[in-house]
Amino acid sequence: MTTAAIGLFGGSFDPVHYGHLRTAWELMQLLQLQELRFLPCGTPPLKVPNCATAEQRLAMLQEATREYPQFSVDARELQRNGPSYTVETLIDLRRELPDTPFCLILGMDAWLSFPQWQRWQDILDLTHIVVAHRPGCELETKGLIAELMQERQTNAAADLHAALAGQIFVHEVTQLEISSSAIRQLYADGLGVDFLLPAGVRELIKESGCYDRFSD
User: Fold this and answer.
1) C-alpha of 133 from chain center
2) Sign of the CA dihedral with 186 first, then 188, 189, and 191 last
3) Phi, psi at residue 71, to the nearest 5°?
4) Sign for the pseudo-dihedral over CA of 176, 111, 73, 56
5) Is the separation of the CB atoms in 160 and 31 below 8 Å?
6) 33, 49, 165, 182: which one has the fewest Cβ atoms less than 10 Å from its Cβ?
7) Residues 58-85 as b or e (16 or more Cβ within 10 Å = b)
8) Total Cβ atoms within 10 A of residue 54
9) How far is it, in rounded angstroms, from Cα 162 to Cα 103?
């Protein structure tokens, strides 16, 4: 017998912002997840290197989520040497929680690049995929992604609790046009970032100066 599903939200979070937090909150409520874990990556294999250090990104995430008991931060990828491969994290988690369904939350861009991920076929044996869809991002109608959707898509949130893995669930979330790269650029340009990320996160960035020297 399975237990209620938990959500897994990976990313660089460089820095975490309200776009991340609102997406996590909406999906946690919609899917009735027992918990949602943020998984900051160490070295992203398909993206440019991070600007803030692992310690700084972890501190920002912990500050951003501390008032929400259903949110937690799992730092295992920051403690791993080499690229952060999602499949390795999922294998670890499955050993720890053999009877718990997982819901891996992906943005549309990440989902469309999913076939490029390390051992992506194994990922579907370890977790469900929840695609956070935003207006203006279109799903493919041909190719591998389209085939996966045809084979595995469900519109019933209950299906994500009834099995450990293997389903794909797409849901439109509130559109907040915020990006970590744009926030870093605002800091580099000496401009304000009010209303884009929590005040506590802004204070940590100000104290560390971690984005003062970066521009995109």
Assistant:
1) 13
2) positive
3) -95, 140
4) negative
5) yes
6) 49
7) bbbbbbbbeeeebbebbbebbebeeebb
8) 16
9) 12
Residues 6+ apart with CB under 8 A from 93: 8, 102, 126
The type of residue at 17 is: H
- DSSP labels, 104-170: EEEEHHHHHTGGGSTTHHHHHHH-EEEEEE-TTPPPPSSSHHHHHHHHHB-S-TTHHHHSSS--EEE
Give me the residue label for tokens 């009834």.
162
H or E element, residue 171: strand 168-172
Q: Which residue has the tokens 């369904």?
A: 101
**How many residues appear in the chain?**
216
Helix (H, G, I), strand (E, B) or coil at 210: coil
Quote the CA–CA distance of 146 and 213 in Å, as a whole number: 42
How much is the pLDDT for 176? 86
- DSSP annotation string for 6-50: EEEEEE--TT--HHHHHHHHHHHHHHT-SEEEEEE-SB-TTSPPP
| Residues facing residue 111 across a β-bridge | none
The overall average pLDDT reported for the chain is 91
Whether 13 and 184 have beta carbons less than 8 Å apart is answered as no
* Low pLDDT (below 70) residues in the chain: 1, 45-48, 135-138, 140-141, 213-216
> Do the bridges between strand 102-107 and strand 35-40 make them parallel or antiparallel, or are there none, so unpaired?
unpaired
Whole-prediction pTM value? 0.93
